Amino acid sequence: MSTEQDHRDRQDIPPNPLGGRTLVVDARDAKAYPRPSDALAEADALDQVFVRPGTYEDKIFVASRPIALIGAGRDLVQVFSRRGAPLYLQQVPSGRISGISFRYVGSDQHSAMNLLDSTCTVTQCRAMEGILSGVVIYGPESRPTFVGNEFCGNRESGLFVFAGAQPRLAENVSRGNHHFGIAVRDDGSYPELVRNQCRENMMSGILLFHHAKALLMDNRCTDNSHWGFVMTPDCIPSPDQDALESSNTLTPNPRGAVSVTETPLSEIGR
């Protein structure tokens, strides 16, 4: 490799704000790690992993430690898996993931991104083609922040919050999913939903069901096949039902802005 090429490769590596090493992933470079999981396995608490442009078949599993995983851009870096979710976090206490598309290409019941009882920041990523929802966030200790991501082409919802999770979701786009843009279930689940766009989904933009709560401000749920927002009577949105339309944009959708129903999943046989 030329000196000029070496210089260009060093320039594209982002600084590590933690002060540790940056481990580089590049399937075309014999001096780099071939897959993100290989680099993460050797990363210390203050290290970050940088993924150069490319398509990587990998399963990333991180448990009980921080994560710093930075891709060159979600249009440039794709991590896919045929067997299980390409990203699974369990009890991750902190960290950041950005600039990567996660794609599930198998046929079993898996999502593209799974977060169990984890708290980290996810930005500028994409979750696509999950057989379940694109992103699942669950567990009472799950408090991640998702900002500026895209959830698209998933067989159920774009993003699903359940089992007591309390994430912050802001300025994400959830489009073209088979069910809902964002779905929230269960007593104790309480996401903050702010300035998200849910559009062109095959059911409604946002669903709350089974005793869920949520803060909803400045979201845009338009051009979905059913409603802008759907909930069961046992759910508690903030602001309340009467103020939802003035606090969010919930039209146009063919069936209207808001629906309250005991059977929000009846049209898919549930």
UniProtKB/TrEMBL annotation:
<feature type="region of interest" description="Disordered">
    <location>
        <begin position="240"/>
        <end position="270"/>
    </location>
</feature>
<dbReference type="InterPro" id="IPR012334">
    <property type="entry name" value="Pectin_lyas_fold"/>
</dbReference>
<protein>
    <recommendedName>
        <fullName>Right handed beta helix domain-containing protein</fullName>
    </recommendedName>
</protein>
<dbReference type="InterPro" id="IPR051550">
    <property type="entry name" value="SCF-Subunits/Alg-Epimerases"/>
</dbReference>
<feature type="domain" description="Right handed beta helix">
    <location>
        <begin position="102"/>
        <end position="227"/>
    </location>
</feature>
<dbReference type="Pfam" id="PF13229">
    <property type="entry name" value="Beta_helix"/>
</dbReference>
<feature type="compositionally biased region" description="Basic and acidic residues">
    <location>
        <begin position="1"/>
        <end position="12"/>
    </location>
</feature>
<feature type="region of interest" description="Disordered">
    <location>
        <begin position="1"/>
        <end position="21"/>
    </location>
</feature>
<dbReference type="InterPro" id="IPR039448">
    <property type="entry name" value="Beta_helix"/>
</dbReference>
<keyword id="KW-0677">Repeat</keyword>
<dbReference type="InterPro" id="IPR011050">
    <property type="entry name" value="Pectin_lyase_fold/virulence"/>
</dbReference>
